[in-house]
Structures are given as structure tokens and as C-alpha cells.
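Appendix B. One record, verbatim.
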Amino acid sequence: GINAEYGDYFLRNSHYDTALSVVNSSGIEDIVDTDLFTSGRQIEQSLMEHNTAPCLQWCHENKSRLKKTKSTLEFNLHTQNFIELIRARDYMSAIAYARKHMVESEGMTKEKLQETMALLAFRPSTECSKYVNLFSEARWEALVSEFRSSNYDLHHLHSDSLLSTVLQSGLSAIKTHQCYSSTEKSGDCPVCNEPLNTLATTLPFSHCTQSRLICRISGEVMNEHNSPMMLPNGNVYGERALKEMMAADGIVTCPRTKDKFWLDQAQKVYVM
């Protein structure tokens, strides 16, 4: 149900308390894998507190599976510990740590190891662009993202939530070129209106094998029972809507241009 999709979405976006409230109140504990996300939450929290031990333990427990996915998480965690020792100017401990942990860690390459060891020649205040990034505090956030991605891969979870996938599918199914035309947008179309219009920007347009003409005034389908009628200014509306909006004197006002015409000036449109 939709509550399971909400729960999954909240868990993936770190709104754990809200997610657990939705899951528990809906009785869908067996559908949403809260244990997977809550255990991952603890590791993510430890990384944000600059503690790599829980994540390294997780890597050790899943070593063979991480190797199959060619994960670089373990090497990056050891690299971060190495960087923190350099930041503390404990160079001898940094060298000893690299010898013990980094040389044989999963995801290590010769190029990466050489680049990391070169940090011994720099200080955290360096302005060298290549090493400024390695000393950056933003690396901790990158480790959180890498752990989350690795955790999803291990459990065969897609990076996008089910709610996001369903929403994108629905938007793509009704998205047309008119949704991005300033003169053709419809107030009744979800994609024509914000914020869904922006969300659907990168999605493909719907593939329609059969087109339908919809009256801009009433939203009804224009067919043999509600003929499309073209006013002299070229705008087309349903016959029913024109008759309903016709004034007592037989004049209709075009909603788009505000031009006024006699109803008998409208011509029936035939679509082949």
C-alpha cells in the first residue's frame, strides 16, 4: 500500500522517527525492512561523528560480498583514518597505519595509494587543489553516501525509493509537450502545475498511440457527441461548452483571447 511506500521513502531520507511511526501505526512491519535502515543509521551517525570503527566492522562482516561489487568503501575508510593522523601531525603513526591497513585493504589501487601517501608532504592548510579535497571535512559526508550505496547494493535495493519510482512513472505517463508551453498548459493537468512541472523536467514524454481532443473549457473529450468547434481566431473548444457559455444574444467569448463571436461563426472540425 501507499503507507509502505511512504515508510520506505522516509527511511531512505533519514526521517527515521516519522518512518517508524507510519510503519507501526499501519501494521506493515513485515513489508518495510526497518531493521536494515535503522542498523545503517547507527553506522551513518558514527561516521558523522568521525568514527569509522562501526563501518569498518560492517565491511569486515561483509568482506566477500563487497569484493564482488568491487566496493572501495574499506580503502576510503582507512584513507580517512590516515588523513586524520596527518591532521594531528602524528606522521609515524600514519605511516604505521598505512602499512598495516591500507596496502591490503579492499578497493586499493596503486594510484590511489600513491596519491594518499603523498599527503605526508602536505599540511591540512595546503592550497594545492588536489590535496585540499582530501583534507576536506566533506569527505565524511561522502563516506556516509558511499556506505549507504554499498548497503543498498548488498541487499539488492535500488538507489531510488519506491515512492519516487511510482511518482516518476505516473508523471511520465501523462507528460506531454503542452505541459511546457506557456500558452498550452492546463490547470487540471498535474504536470502543467508546480512543483510537479519541475520534477518531471528530465522525464520522458508519454507515448500515445491514440490521441484524444480535450476541451480546454470543460475538460471533456471532444468526439462525435461533443464536436470540436473552431472559432474565427483559430481556437478550438467543445460544442457543449460553447453552448453553455453562450450569452442570451448568441455571442460567445473566447476564454483565451477574450474575443467575442457569434456562435454560428464557429466551424466544426473534422479529424482524420
